[in-house]
Design a protein that fits this description.
single chain, 18 helices, globular, alpha/beta, four-stranded antiparallel sheet, about 35% helix, nine-stranded mixed sheet, about 500 residues
Length: about 500
């Protein structure tokens, strides 16, 4: 049995950490792959997180074309948010083209992505971070003998969003991650050794979990860092990465010597510092922009309705209050859209933007007002600038129809509890309790295998390039894609043909 292409995603594994730990021996498997082939950096998607990044990987399309910017999307009222799931996506994954060309494909736990063709062995929401629901299997996967094994495994109720404060809690969390890695690897190894695959795609979700919850112990400068806890349990982020590295070794061996191996992450991880909790008040004070508050008036009026009437028609009164609150939110000149990102998504009222064919454009005066107000923010104590950039959606994702008109990119080096600006004074509001680590844009990849050449310098590419590259390796050109082939070396199909990036180096 053998595999032609093994594509392994380490969800949330940070580029700077992987770079350092492949150099110092902490990650020997990735280091060995790096010695044999190119190491590359994948450009980030400004303002966005894992939903957009994984959807770009699976579809080889940028966010403005696949449409999944976040795990929530706005309702028609422009304020309420509803879940955005893989089944809401209207574009297929790149592996459908391979299945259509007669290639044998297995895809295990690629997050935030469409299932695709039932003729591929596709498993989703098995052991990922942020599962959308119960595990789902394609028709081919459900008929496979491995389907029974998938129903068993360690800690079926494991929640990587829950972590207690004690050293024992952290040690138990790490042990659960390691057990899940081991179970996943055993199942994946069985699949690899039991069939001949043209493409085998799988991911590990535990680096994502460890980054979100134990960054506080990895980062000695984090405000929640506890030296005593760190002394007892060590660096769980490092331990989980090292365990995944050992699992990758097992899977590389199972794939066979003739396989092209690509290990990657679509985005990184860092401290979860931002000023979203301050942004709306800063804009209100800094721009002098206020909106009438019909919600407050409605609440006052409803409080005077007799109790017997409220009990008789509660749904009517509740609906009136909700509609008033929606009107209030829509009337705000600048509104923060709730999102678990390190950026702050902003919605700009219709009075300050134009709406043509569903694409929202921010007018020049609003752009200047936003960048001027937010760009002037500094930390009151250190005077460090707090906003790196204000990114307007149509500038970086042209044609996008999404939940935000702009994204505020904050300096993530320290927690933001207060801001200062000329004319604004000092605004102090402690950051709310948050998971200690969160995503930062920018991924990486390393490749090794027959015909792959070691590169002296890092290659650069985009997330959308990975699927195009492995499809080309298997002799399939994708008809609809934003990606181009990465220059991995003189494999039989050859990079540098029309439609490829050739020797990538943007």
């Amino acid at each position: 049995m053998g595999t032609k292409v093994l594509l392994l995603g380490l969800d949330g594994a940070d580029r700077s950490l992987v770079d350092a730990w492949t150099r110092d021996g902490t990650l020997p498997t990735l280091a060995a792959l790096r010695e044999r082939g190119p190491w590359g950096e994948l450009a980030g998607q400004p303002g966005l997180g894992d939903d957009a990044a994984w959807a770009s990987f699976s579809t080889t399309l940028r966010p403005e074309h696949h449409g999944r910017f976040h795990h929530q999307r706005p309702e028609p009222d422009g304020v309420s948010l509803v879940a955005h799931r893989r089944d809401d996506m209207t574009v297929p994954p790149f592996w459908d083209a391979l299945v259509g060309a007669g290639r044998r494909v297995a895809v295990v736990d690629v997050p935030k992505s469409p299932m695709g063709d039932d003729c591929a062995l596709v498993i989703s929401d098995w052991m990922v971070h942020g599962a959308e629901g119960p595990m789902r299997l394609s028709r081919t996967a459900a008929a496979h003998p491995a389907a029974a094994v998938l129903q068993t495994g360690p800690e079926p109720d494991f929640d990587c969003n829950r972590l207690g404060p004690t050293a024992d809690d952290v040690a138990a969390f790490e042990a659960a991650c390691v057990r899940r890695n081991g179970h996943r690897t055993a199942v994946l190894r069985g699949l690899l050794e039991g069939d001949d695959w043209d493409l085998f795609v799988a991911t590990f979700g535990t680096p994502h979990c460890a980054g979100h919850r134990t960054w506080r112990d990895h980062d000695v400068h984090h405000p929640e860092h506890d030296p005593g806890r760190r002394a007892q349990v060590g660096d769980v982020v490092e331990h989980v990465y090292a365990d995944v590295d050992r699992c990758v070794r097992t899977l590389v061996d199972a794939a066979g010597d003739d396989a092209l191996v690509v290990v990657f992450s679509v985005l990184g991880m860092g401290p979860n510092h931002h000023g979203s909790h301050l942004a709306e008040e800063v804009l209100r004070r800094g721009t002098g922009a206020t909106a009438p508050n019909p919600a407050r008036l409605a609440d006052g009026a409803l409080s005077r309705v007799p109790g017997w009437l409220r009990r008789r028609v509660p749904w009517v009164l509740s609906g009136l209050g909700q509609r008033a609150r929606i009107r209030h939110e829509r009337a705000k000149p600048y509104r923060v859209v709730p999102a678990d990102l390190t950026s702050t998504p902003l919605r700009i009222a219709a009075a300050r933007s134009t709406d043509a064919d569903g694409v929202r454009h921010v007018p020049p005066m609003a752009r200047q007002e936003l960048t001027g107000t937010l760009g002037a923010l500094v930390d009151p104590a250190s005077r460090r600038p707090l906003v790196e950039a204000v990114v307007f959606t149509q500038d970086v994702y042209p044609g996008a129809r999404t939940f935000a008109d702009a994204f505020v990119l904050w300096d993530p080096t320290a927690r933001i509890d207060a801001v200062r600006a000329e004319g604004l004074g000092v605004l102090h509001r402690p950051a709310p309790p948050l998971r200690s680590g969160n995503h930062r844009p920018g991924g990486w990849f390393v490749a090794a295998g027959p015909g792959v050449e070691h590169a002296g310098d890092s290659l650069t590419g985009e997330i959308v390039d990975l699927g195009v590259t492995v499809a080309a390796r298997l002799g399939v050109e994708l008809d609809v894609t934003d990606g181009h082939r990465l220059a991995l070396g003189a494999h039989p199909e050859g990079e540098g043909r029309p439609g490829s990036r050739g020797e990538v180096g943007r």
